[in-house]
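Q: My labmate handed me this sequence with no annotations at all. I'd like to see what the chain might look like in three dimensions before we decide whether it's worth expressing. Could you predict it?
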Amino acid sequence: MSEQAPDELPEPGPPAAPQGRVLAAVAAGGALGALARYGALELWPGAGGFPWTVFVVNAIGCALIGVLMVLTVERGRVTHPLVRPFIGVGVLGGFTTFSTYAVGVSELLVRQEALTAMAYAAATALTALGAVWAAAVATRTWLDRGTRGIRDIRGTRGTRGEGRAA
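A: Here is what I predict for the chain of 166 residues:
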């Protein structure tokens, strides 16, 4: 294998799209994601206490980001150059939001519910990271489900003495 100079290496991920199309994809996706978050807050409004709706929305959105990154960047199953800007930055960026999360923490602090605010802040961060990780692992497992059996069969047939009765 020959070494390539860093300036000769291909860009990771799908090919880039023209900037105007990327901006339009992000804007359209962001509008849809923000509408979905707004809809969730309207359907399941929080009544004081823990901001469960934003917590769940952020966890779901982070899980979907994990799936998207495996499909687009890691495995290259989805290669259209506007998928990541539209879904990742736009839809999921508008759906999950740090500002709504921060407002929730702030409102809890204003109501002098410091313990709940701290729990919400920590639980959201841990849950978001855990959701990305778990969804990425689950997506990899799902994608590999059909090839695992083939690899196992090939691996045992092609080796000397392994996988055979003596």
